[in-house]
């Protein structure tokens, strides 16, 4: 499959997955079933018709309002769907039609859900994070076998341990990391470790850099203070994807600063 058809297929897949992620984002923090009942309006309980359940276009067709009671529907729904599609396309462009692609598409999907949930309720649900370890191992296994990437897999596992130890130390400090961040760190370490140690370093550093910058802006705008709780999961995930997409050029740029060329 050439690049363009792959990107189109992945974009459509991302829209469909994004629609499901909206269900995950709403129901998982409330401990509700992902299967029953069917998608419905939170205001009046009316089931969403199939034609209105088409990602992005359903919301546009309804003009952002329930077909039954005309209660407003948050624009976050189409944004999650479109954002997932864009992230899927970016991942597909990064990895191409490779053995690793399904594993990183899965990471993209759970990253969208976890980031939004953490922003909503300041929690990274175990129901998403913990099963993702098994899923990651299963999805990366074909790459290990087909490419005989045993040393790469070993590095990924070691990187998971390294990030866990680092976050464990931070969690033990006063006002340290939350339990959800601690559980997420090894998973991101595994994915970044597969790409290389420079990706691990960049992903970990970028998380704190991005989180610190946002916290500083919020304090300048008086939207937060030194005692405010700020969800860190979104910055961990953003830092990880920065490393996925730009880890190599960032590492080369940094190396050039340390050893300038003549």
TrEMBL record:
<keyword id="KW-0812">Transmembrane</keyword>
<keyword id="KW-0997">Cell inner membrane</keyword>
<dbReference type="InterPro" id="IPR050882">
    <property type="entry name" value="Prepilin_peptidase/N-MTase"/>
</dbReference>
<dbReference type="Pfam" id="PF06750">
    <property type="entry name" value="A24_N_bact"/>
</dbReference>
<keyword id="KW-0489">Methyltransferase</keyword>
<comment type="similarity">
    <text>Belongs to the peptidase A24 family.</text>
</comment>
<feature type="transmembrane region" description="Helical">
    <location>
        <begin position="233"/>
        <end position="255"/>
    </location>
</feature>
<feature type="domain" description="Prepilin peptidase A24 N-terminal">
    <location>
        <begin position="12"/>
        <end position="95"/>
    </location>
</feature>
<protein>
    <recommendedName>
        <fullName>Prepilin leader peptidase/N-methyltransferase</fullName>
        <ecNumber>2.1.1.-</ecNumber>
        <ecNumber>3.4.23.43</ecNumber>
    </recommendedName>
</protein>
<feature type="transmembrane region" description="Helical">
    <location>
        <begin position="128"/>
        <end position="145"/>
    </location>
</feature>
<dbReference type="InterPro" id="IPR010627">
    <property type="entry name" value="Prepilin_pept_A24_N"/>
</dbReference>
<keyword id="KW-1003">Cell membrane</keyword>
<keyword id="KW-1133">Transmembrane helix</keyword>
<comment type="function">
    <text>Plays an essential role in type IV pili and type II pseudopili formation by proteolytically removing the leader sequence from substrate proteins and subsequently monomethylating the alpha-amino group of the newly exposed N-terminal phenylalanine.</text>
</comment>
<keyword id="KW-0511">Multifunctional enzyme</keyword>
<feature type="transmembrane region" description="Helical">
    <location>
        <begin position="103"/>
        <end position="122"/>
    </location>
</feature>
<feature type="transmembrane region" description="Helical">
    <location>
        <begin position="194"/>
        <end position="221"/>
    </location>
</feature>
<dbReference type="Pfam" id="PF01478">
    <property type="entry name" value="Peptidase_A24"/>
</dbReference>
<dbReference type="InterPro" id="IPR000045">
    <property type="entry name" value="Prepilin_IV_endopep_pep"/>
</dbReference>
<feature type="domain" description="Prepilin type IV endopeptidase peptidase">
    <location>
        <begin position="106"/>
        <end position="215"/>
    </location>
</feature>
<keyword id="KW-0808">Transferase</keyword>
<keyword id="KW-0378">Hydrolase</keyword>
<keyword id="KW-0645">Protease</keyword>
<feature type="transmembrane region" description="Helical">
    <location>
        <begin position="157"/>
        <end position="174"/>
    </location>
</feature>
<dbReference type="InterPro" id="IPR014032">
    <property type="entry name" value="Peptidase_A24A_bac"/>
</dbReference>
<keyword id="KW-0472">Membrane</keyword>
<feature type="transmembrane region" description="Helical">
    <location>
        <begin position="6"/>
        <end position="28"/>
    </location>
</feature>
């Amino acid at each position: 499959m050439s690049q363009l058809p792959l990107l189109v297929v992945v974009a459509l897949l991302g829209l469909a997955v994004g629609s499901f992620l909206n269900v995950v984002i709403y129901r998982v923090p409330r401990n509700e079933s992902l299967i029953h009942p069917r998608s419905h309006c939170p205001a009046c309980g009316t089931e969403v018709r199939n034609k209105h359940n088409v990602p992005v276009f359903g919301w546009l067709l309804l003009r952002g309002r329930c077909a039954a009671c005309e209660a407003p529907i948050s624009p976050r729904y189409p944004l999650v769907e479109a954002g997932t599609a864009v992230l899927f396309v970016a991942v597909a462009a990064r990895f191409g039609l490779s053995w690793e692609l399904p594993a990183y598409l899965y990471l993209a999907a759970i990253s969208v859900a976890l980031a939004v949930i953490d922003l909503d309720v300041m929690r990274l649900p175990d129901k998403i994070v913990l099963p993702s370890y098994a899923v990651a191992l299963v999805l990366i296994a074909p790459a290990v076998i087909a490419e005989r990437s045993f040393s790469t897999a070993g590095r990924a596992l070691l990187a998971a341990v390294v990030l866990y130890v680092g976050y464990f130390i931070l969690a033990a400090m006063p006002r340290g990391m939350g339990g959800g961040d601690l559980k997420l760190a090894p998973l991101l370490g595994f994915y970044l470790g597969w790409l290389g140690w420079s990706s691990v370093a960049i992903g970990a550093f970028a998380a704190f850099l991005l989180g610190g910058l946002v916290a500083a802006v919020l304090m300048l705008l008086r939207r937060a203070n030194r005692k405010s709780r700020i969800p860190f999961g979104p910055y961990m995930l953003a830092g990880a994807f920065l490393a996925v997409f730009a880890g190599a050029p960032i590492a080369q740029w940094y190396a050039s600063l340390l050893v300038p060329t003549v």
